[in-house]
Amino acid sequence: MSDSDKNYEDFISTVSHELRTPLTSIRGFSQTMLASWDKLDDESKKKFLKIIEEQSNRLINLVENMLSVTKLQSEKEMLIYKETDVAPTVNTVVSIVKNQYKTRTFEVDINPKTPTILVDRDKFMQIMTNLIENAAKYSDENSTVKIKSGFCKDCEFVSIKISDKGVGIDEEDYEKIFTKFSRIDNPLTRKVQGSGLGLYITKNLVEKMHGKISVESHDGETTFDVLLPVCNLETQARTKCRQ
Ligand SMILES: Nc1ncnc2c1ncn2[C@@H]1O[C@H](COP(=O)(O)OP(=O)(O)O)[C@@H](O)[C@H]1O
Ligand SMILES: [Mg+2]
Questions:
Q1: Between vectors from CA 138 to CA 54 and to CA 213, what angle results, nearest 5°?
Q2: From the CB of 150, is ligand 1 less than 6 Å away?
Q3: Which bound ligand lies closest to the C-alpha atom of 179?
Q4: What radius of gyration do the chain's Cα atoms show?
Q5: How far apart are CA 188 and CA 142, in angstroms?
Q6: Distance CA 218, CA 222 (A)
Q7: How far apart (Å, rounded) are the C-alpha atoms in residues 151 and 159?
Q8: How far apart are CA 17 and CA 65, in angstroms?
Q9: How many whole angstroms from 116 Cα to the centroid of ligand 1?
């Protein structure tokens, strides 16, 4: 079998598995509700609908990530650059992820003086979603995820750091995790589901938007640092001539 056949087969099997799990759960809970409507109290109905909503969100994120992979490959993706405030996007993403990972605490520390950045807003949201979700996903219940911004006067970039105190990443895997389909084998990764596409897409999107991403994991803390260009006349001129 050629490498591309193998990649394609891996892709289909990962995707089928990833799609099947939430779909099975959505179907199961809808069937239960339809079959036992009169017997279920309001509390249970609400609980089931909540699961259906969460699983649908999971499907949407997955499909969005998969569409991004094909677009990244075909290089056709057009980005729509807009001057963007960091805080509202981070806060929206945190409230969505918090809903999914209720036992984690999230600490957001975005300095109100943080300069605006020049990014495609949907892509910026996708980047933050992938990183904040990973931080919650690869750490234990009751642990804290921190999101902190950094900048300096005359700096080219705003830095957004996402830290967790979870399973951690060995230094030898720092590069590998950003490649397509790669997942690091450890008891937690085996337990939680994933396609291994999130960080591949995240890195591609960050770099397409002229930013940088890096990771460091030591002393029980893992930190992803995303640098995105400050919105100024220079960066505006650059994106205008690209559009
Ligand atoms: N915050 C983190 N802490 C520890 N490991 C991580 C973290 N984020 C990502 N990883 C590792 O990198 C791998 C790739 O991440 P990603 O591309 O988002 O794929 P997925 O989450 O679907 O497995 C994960 O499977 C996990 O092994
Ligand atoms: Mg992920």
A1: 100
A2: no
A3: 1
A4: 19
A5: 15
A6: 7
A7: 6
A8: 15
A9: 28
Q: Tokens in use for 91?
A: 């806060």
Which residue is it, tokens 């990764």? 189
- Measured in Å, residue 196 CA sits from the centre of ligand 1 at 7
pLDDT of residue 19: 86
pLDDT surpasses 90 at 54: no
Atom from ligand 1 closest to the CA of residue 192: 23
The Cα–Cα gap between 22 and 51 comes to 10
pLDDT at 191: 75
| Identity of residue 43 | E
The C-alpha atoms of residue 116 and residue 228 are separated, in whole angstroms, by: 10
Query: What domains does the chain contain, in order, with CATH numbers?
Result: 3-74 (1.10.287.130), 81-242 (3.30.565.10)
Asked if 215 contacts 222 with a C-beta cutoff of 8 angstroms, the reply is yes
Tokens of 241: 């001539």
CA of 183 to the centre of ligand 1 (A): 6
Stated as kind and residue range, the H or E segment containing 55 is helix 42-74
pLDDT in tens, 57-93: 888 888 888 888 878 776 666 889 999 999 999 999 9
- Judge whether residue 203 has pLDDT over 60: yes
